[in-house]
Design goal:
Blueprint: H1 23-26, H2 30-40, E1 43-48, E2 51-57, H3 60-68, E3 73-74, H4 102-110, H5 116-120, H6 123-134, E4 142-144, H7 145-149, H8 152-161, H9 168-179, H10 195-216, H11 222-228, E5 230-231, E6 234-235, H12 238-252, H13 256-270, E7 274-276, H14 283-294, E8 299-304, E9 308-310, E10 313-315, E11 320-324, H15 325-328, H16 363-380, E12 381-386, E13 391-392, E14 401-403, E15 405-410
Parallel strand pairs: 2-11
Antiparallel strand pairs: 1-2, 3-8, 4-15, 5-6, 7-12, 8-11, 9-10, 12-15, 13-14
Helix pairs in contact: 6-16, 9-10, 10-12, 13-14, 13-16, 14-16
């Protein structure tokens, strides 16, 4: 998704905004649309031609309320606008598509491999994967940072699940086909039906075989852990296992690589075309600002359990309500200079990982990957500039950069001596 900095007085006609249109995020100006909505219509009804419309909340306080009040807004009626018009088959069986108390039962078990203590034990392997991602930057003057980092989160996910590295590239393609089915780069050529559905079935078929193998040969990996874990006093069914493996796989592609690419692109724009690292870059606050700046997940969706109101707007029972994360992370009432990338920003009350009971289970792992990535980038690369136009992911759900060709200048100690 294009990240822009609208002028203070800028706005667009409300009736020209279509949050369901892919072009808003790749060709037009989503940040200008959200800025207009926050100021003029913070609870906005988005009609859809030939489909169910939805409410959109764009201010941080309303976003946190929709995501946090599970008694009023359920996760079991679809969690993204791509899931409108049909029941969610994962409702009640996938952690992401359940409400407390069932959600908490899932979270207590599925969260253990992603706890801060567990994540620290992965640090050495994660740093090795990061160095592999950066290595191509040393091979020539132009480096596609987005392409290099696109593999990183799935590589880490495969390591945790005990999946072969040879499967990573195909899993990345299937994950993006599922999350961004309108992007021509990820279309499935042998699919007779909807791309996202075909991708889902291919991933589920893959995990069906993995689960069958693990049941015969339990190992020290995440899939084996899920097979033996008890949720609410019983082990998960095969359907629950497959659904939650799918959810963890899709979650692996969302945050880290796009936060890195968006931050590199933001630095090139902020410094007049030549990206460089600030003289002072506290790593902890830099990671949090990269998450706020990039907001890799555009929105989450919930449905109203009963008639309610948001900021004086009546919401009917059953209505879909979308919480726009990227807008909340630019909310002027919360963030000073919201359109400035500031690595020293503190406090930083971003909601890049969501809010409430569904706060992203992989947030500690994502932060670890980002910290190691920025450590290695700062140590290796002195400056960079765009070598060609970036290419953005075609999606209403994920704010991705799929190609970011950079002309780079390495630190002098990394430049091979002339022969």
């Amino acid at each position: 998704m294009r990240i822009t900095a609208p002028a203070e007085a800028a706005g667009i006609p409300i009736d020209s905004i279509n949050l369901a249109d892919n072009d808003l995020y790749t060709k037009r100006d989503a940040h200008l649309a959200w800025k207009t909505l926050r100021a003029e219509c913070p609870v906005f009804w988005q009609a859809r031609a030939g489909g169910e419309g939805f409410w959109a909340v764009t201010r941080r306080a309303d976003v946190c309320r929709v995501l946090g009040e599970h008694e009023t807004f359920t996760s079991e009626g679809g969690t993204a606008i791509s899931m409108l018009d049909a029941p969610d088959p994962a409702a009640g069986i996938m952690m992401q598509a359940t409400d407390p108390p069932r959600h908490q039962q899932f979270r207590e078990q599925l969260g253990k491999p992603f706890s801060p203590r567990a994540v620290r034990s992965y640090a050495e392997q994660v740093r090795a994967f990061v160095r592999d991602a950066i290595r191509p930057a040393c091979d020539g003057e132009v480096w596609d940072a987005a392409a290099s980092f696109s593999r990183l989160p799935m590589t880490v996910g495969a390591m945790l699940m005990g999946l072969p590295d040879a499967d990573v590239d195909s899993l990345v393609r299937l994950a993006y086909a599922s999350l961004a089915p309108d992007d021509p780069r990820y279309r499935i050529t042998d699919s007779a039906g909807p791309v996202a559905v075909s991708a889902h079935f291919k991933i589920i078929d893959y995990f069906t075989r993995c689960i069958e193998d693990r049941k015969r040969n339990l190992a020290d990996d995440l899939i084996s852990y899920l097979i033996t874990a008890e949720i609410g006093g019983r082990r998960m069914t095969d359907e629950e296992l497959m659904s939650n493996c799918l959810s963890l796989l899709l979650g692996a592609v969302v945050t880290t690589s796009h936060a890195i690419s968006a931050t590199l692109l933001g630095l090139t724009e902020q410094y007049g075309g030549e990206g460089r690292w600030p003289d002072v870059m506290p790593m902890q606050t830099a990671v949090e600002e990269a998450l706020r700046w990039s907001s890799p997940v555009n929105h989450f969706m919930r449905r109203a359990r009963h008639d309610t109101e948001i900021s004086d707007q009546k919401i009917a029972a059953g209505d879909p309500v979308t919480a726009w994360i990227a807008s909340a992370n630019r909310d002027e009432s919360t963030f000073d200079r919201p359109y400035e990338l500031d690595f020293s920003r503190a406090p930083n009350r971003h909601v890049a990982f969501g809010s409430g009971p569904h706060l992203c289970i992989g947030s500690h792992l994502a932060r670890l990957m980002l910290q190691h990535s920025f450590d290695e980038l700062v140590a290796s690369i002195e400056s960079f500039e765009l070598a060609d136009a970036p290419v953005h992911l075609v999606s209403t759900e994920i704010a991705g950069v799929v190609s970011l060709p950079l002309r780079i200048k390495l630190r002098s100690r990394l430049i091979p001596a002339a022969s």
